[in-house]
Amino acid sequence: MSAAATATTTAQPPVGVSNLPNQRYKIANERGGSFTLMVCGESGLGKTTFINTLFQTTLKHQDAQQRRYTPIKKTVDIDIIRAILEEKNFSLRVNVIDTPGFGDNVNNNKAWQPLIDFIDDQHDSYMRQEQQPYRKVKFDLRVHAVLYFIKPTGHGLKPLDIETMKRLSTRANLIPVIAKSDTLTAQELQVFKSRIRQVIEAQEIRIFTPPLETGSVKDDESPDSPAMEHARQLIESMPFAVVGSENKYDNGQGTPVVARQYPWGLVEIENDSHCDFRKLRGLLLRTYLLDLILTTEELHYETYRRLRLEGGNSEDPNLPVKAPARKLSHNPKYKEEENALKKYFTDQVKAEEQRFRQWEQNIVNERIRLNGDLEDIQSKVKKLEEQVRNLQLKKR
Ligand code: GTP
Predict the structure, then answer these.
(1) Structure confidence by residue, pLDDT tens digits, 214-246
(2) What atom of ligand 1 comes closest to residue 243's alpha carbon?
(3) CA 72 to centroid of ligand 1, rounded, Å
(4) Fewer beta carbons under 10 A from the terminal one: N or C of the chain?
(5) What are the coiled-coil residue ranges (predicted)?
């Protein structure tokens, strides 16, 4: 495990942490304004690039020595990058946990274990510090959000993705993202998103979604308030399609924008019609920063602590948290899609059953025909045998 030097970054243009609503801003400031984000997923999906894009600076430098031999530096250890994000009078201590890509091995059994161990270790370390007589200053690296990078295959989630997400979601606020979404067309992306959402719901993976229920952190909001509408829009965009880049290009109007350049044009990172980067950054560092911190404290850490004190077995994939998964399908549009899909599957099953029955009937008919043929042949054989016997008699 290595720790990079602390960087202070004054984001240009601002990331938005200073725009936390006043009351939340105050709580975040009192609690020390510290936020820990973990990125994980298969190798080469743009996790390191995303971190640098998110904080609008090169938080993680490429190793010049290594770069001479390999053009892209692989993350081989769990890296802890520390930064202080300063905006106006607000400063946020950010810890980013960059994890090595997994899934490259022939046997990827338990590829998620180092991630789970890291999250558990942080809870454990915090718990021990709390048990000390002097516990004012605590070293806290509890993970507030885990960004899980999904390969943009356009097909669906792999069993390894499902298993890893299931396990991570029981310990931390899991936010799945579609990596390198610029490699998919808009249509492919929509289909891919919809498939991933269906798997997440079917497998009951507990991903972090902005709270919509009353009685949540935001119970001061009415169901029709702009904040609730914003929350609903964020839920509809999940899993967020992200694009990362560390380069700026002229957008044709003389303004440099962070983008990826293609022969046919630019994919602008901050453009909502190109990707969901801005939505995700807003969720992480502005609107739901405090929700992420509070759910980590009140749900994930508390559950871990309780289980440890009760002597629970943390090997169980469903532990520590067994809270019900929030539904992604609040939107009637997704309900309709789900119903249409159910109908499609039922029709397919019926058609297959019909085809199978027809095939069974054909086999029965064929057997009857063959039995008839067999009887014919047997009677012909009998006749021939009789003729042979008669001939032999005559001959004698
Ligand atoms: P590991 O450290 O091996 O786990 O890789 P990583 O997931 O950190 O990927 P990294 O950020 O090193 O990026 C790998 C390659 O993908 C680099 O060449 C990046 O320029 C490229 N890349 C990063 N983000 C994107 C993206 O959004 N779209 C496209 N098309 N390429 C990207």
Answers:
(1) 444 444 556 667 778 888 888 888 899 999 998
(2) 27
(3) 8
(4) C
(5) 334-394
- Of the three residues 296, 326, 356, the one that is the final residue of a domain is 326
Q: Which domain holds residue 108?
A: 20-326
Q: How far is the CA of 84 from the centre of ligand 1 (A)?
A: 24
Q: Is the pLDDT of residue 311 over 80?
A: no
Lowest mean pLDDT of 57-61, 215-219, 284-288, name the range.
Answer: 215-219
Ligand 1: distance of its center to the CA of 40 in Å?
Answer: 12
> Which value, in Å, is the radius of gyration of the alpha carbons in the chain?
30
Residue 291 and residue 388 in one domain: no
CATH number at residue 67: 3.40.50.300
Say how far apart CA 269 and CA 277 lie, in whole Å.
6
At residue 173, does pLDDT exceed 90? yes
For ligand 1, which residues put their CB under 6 angstroms from it? 43-49, 72, 74-75, 100-101, 180, 182-183, 243-244, 260
Which residue's C-alpha comes closest to atom 30 of ligand 1? 180
Tell me: pLDDT of 20 over 60: no
pTM beyond 0.90, yes or no: no
Within 13 Å and on the Cβ side, how many CA atoms surround 106? 0
Q: How many structural domains compose the chain? A: 2
> In which band, very low, low, confident or very high, does the pLDDT at 44 lie, cut at 50, 70 and 90?
confident
**How far does CA 20 lie from the centroid of its chain?**
26
Tell me the mean pLDDT in the region 8-21. 51
Q: Number of helices (H) and strands (E) in the chain: give both, helices first.
A: 11, 11
Q: Which of 49, 66, 99, 189 to mutate for ligand 1's pocket (most ligand atoms within 8 Å of CB)? A: 49
290 and 268 fall within a common domain: yes
